[in-house]
Design a protein that fits this description.
Elements lengths: L1 E3 L19 E8 L2 E9 L10 E7 L1 H14 L4
Parallel strand pairs: 1-4
Antiparallel strand pairs: 2-3, 3-4
């Protein structure tokens, strides 16, 4: 579980390959009175324990705004 506090652009990886596809659920939570978005991914279809949470991340308002800007840079039609 991780709370994202900042983003920075990494190096371009020319050998990047597609990752295993999975689903992600989101929920709205409050942590110490602060609103957050909680994202949880689940194991792949081949995972032994199906349906179990694999990773979770939390975004506060500042991190969410930063992510929106990153997404707009990559996808100019949103």
């Amino acid at each position: 579980m991780a709370r994202i506090t900042s983003f920075h652009e990494g190096q371009h990886n020319p050998n990047a390959r597609p990752h295993t596809e999975t689903e992600c659920s989101f929920s709205f939570v409050e942590v110490h009175g602060e609103p957050m978005v909680n994202l949880a991914t689940f194991g792949s279809k081949d995972r032994q324990k199906k349906g179990s949470t694999s990773q979770t991340i939390q975004l506060d308002r500042e991190a969410a705004l930063a992510l929106v800007e990153i997404l707009r840079r990559q996808f100019d039609d949103i």
